[in-house]
Design a protein that fits this description.
Blueprint lengths: L2 E4 L15 E10 L11 H14 L10 E7 L2 E8 L4 H27 L4 E10 L7 H19 L4 H14 L2 E10 L5 E11 L8 H10 L3 H14 L9 E6 L1 H5 L6 H9 L7 E5 L8 H14 L2 E7 L5 H8 L3 E4 L1 H4 L6 H17 L3 E3 L5 H10 L3 E2 L13
Parallel strand pairs: 1-3, 7-8, 8-9, 9-10, 10-11, 11-12, 12-13
Antiparallel strand pairs: 2-4, 2-5, 3-4, 6-7, 6-13
Helix pairs in contact: 1-2, 5-6
């Protein structure tokens, strides 16, 4: 494949090659956050950006296009491709995927090569060639306008790719649970229960479940994602002993959603021969609760059905004490930031002792999270903490047989 280079963009586009059905265009623009608005990046960075973009962008498109060429307008790259076969929507999807993956790769290369954390915006357009006739320059002009508009609307280069990945995850239920034991301390340590943690089948777009759930919240899809995670967690622990608990994370904003329906979980449990009194819903405390009355109303539905409630990440969020007072949980899960090296830190020990006193007055036991060292565990045993969780006691994995 011969790729023509037009570095200035001053030359006119070549005539439409015979057999072309579509004109596809990919637009890439690099934003260097270190620059003040209206100023250009240093010449060395600009040259590296241009060199990397010309190496990365053509990629697999060379095998699919009849002819390709690129041109630069200032520091924006336009890759033009004459295409044949496939439907227009299919070409749009292929170019979009190629552009966004290229943009992500370029961001990583630029960061590794220059230390700059710039953003690469990407946009695509595919236009019909009207049976191989028409003015090539007009086609490319219209395609460039559409691609630039798309890139500006999408914001950063990952947005479109993340939306596509999220849709696929929801459609294919492409997440799975792992389970970390929660151990009852004192005397002979026994497994009190398991916390179900969500994992992704593919980490190429989202680096982990927290990023996935955060993005789903921005896209208005967190309720659907949370329901799938809950059902997968229940589905994976059919051998839960009658005296053991299953801890499932539930975001507070789910319960603030008017469409929230707690009855779905109960019917799912019944199909799997589990009881509500075996399930503890963990309300994450890393983000503030906006509507306490709505959350309390939803929690009351849960309690009426037999579920229990835990507040997660106590000590790491914005409003631990208010959440404890308002929600009156059955368990307090103390964040690992307090447990880490607690045997060497009197202040952390004092904070944990204060939480113990609060829990004792409310009749709420504490669960210490993030135990990674024997010394930490020994300190918790001396303080009389009843339950503990962490790598030192057991790593997340498939439900034990």
């Amino acid at each position: 494949m011969n790729i023509q280079q037009n570095r200035t963009g001053a030359e006119h586009a070549a005539a439409i090659p015979e057999g072309s059905e579509f004109a596809g265009l990919i637009y890439l623009s690099w934003q260097n956050p270190g620059n003040r608005p209206g100023t250009e990046a240093p010449c060395s960075l600009r040259e590296q950006w241009r060199r990397m973009a010309e190496q990365v962008l053509p990629g697999s498109l060379q095998e699919m296009a009849l002819k390709m060429e690129w041109c630069w307008q200032h520091d924006d790259l336009f890759l033009r491709a004459w295409l044949k076969g496939k439907e227009q929507a299919r070409w749009e999807s292929l170019l979009e995927q190629h552009a966004l993956l290229s943009a992500r790769e370029l961001e990583q290369l630029i960061s590794a090569g220059t230390g700059s954390q710039g953003i690469v915006n990407a946009g695509v357009a595919v236009l019909e060639c009207r049976g191989g006739t028409g003015d090539a320059e007009s086609i490319w002009y219209e395609a460039a306008k559409r691609a630039i508009v798309q890139a500006r609307q999408d914001g950063d280069s990952n947005r479109h790719l993340q939306r596509r990945a999220l849709r696929g995850i929801l459609a294919e239920r492409a997440i799975y649970p792992v389970y970390q034991p929660i151990v009852a301390l004192g005397g002979e340590a026994v497994v009190f229960g398991y916390e179900a943690l969500t994992r992704l089948q593919d980490n190429s777009v989202f680096r982990g479940p927290m990023e996935l759930f955060r993005f789903a919240g921005e896209e208005g899809a967190v309720y659907s994602l949370d329901r799938i995670a809950r059902e997968r967690a229940i589905d994976g622990c059919l051998k839960l002993a009658p005296n053991q608990k299953l801890f499932i994370n539930v975001m507070a904003q789910i319960m603030e959603d008017p469409s929230f329906s707690p009855g779905r979980t109960l019917s799912f449990l019944r199909r799997h021969h589990l009881q509500p009194n075996q399930v503890v819903f963990e309300i994450t405390e890393r983000s503030s609760i906006e509507d306490y009355p709505a959350v309390k109303k939803a929690l009351q539905h849960y309690r009426n059905q037999g579920y229990q409630i835990a507040i997660d990440d106590v000590g790491a969020g914005y409003s631990s004490l208010q959440s404890i007072v308002e929600l009156r949980p059955d368990y307090l899960k103390v964040d690992r930031s307090i447990i880490h090296h607690i045997h060497q830190d009197d202040v952390k020990a004092h904070i944990l002792h204060t939480l113990q006193e609060v829990g004792a007055k409310l009749g709420v036991p504490l669960i210490a999270e993030g135990i990674e060292q024997e010394e930490e565990l020994a300190a918790l045993l001396r303080m009389g903490i009843p339950y503990a969780q962490g790598y030192h006691l057991g790593r997340p994995g498939p439900f034990p047989s």
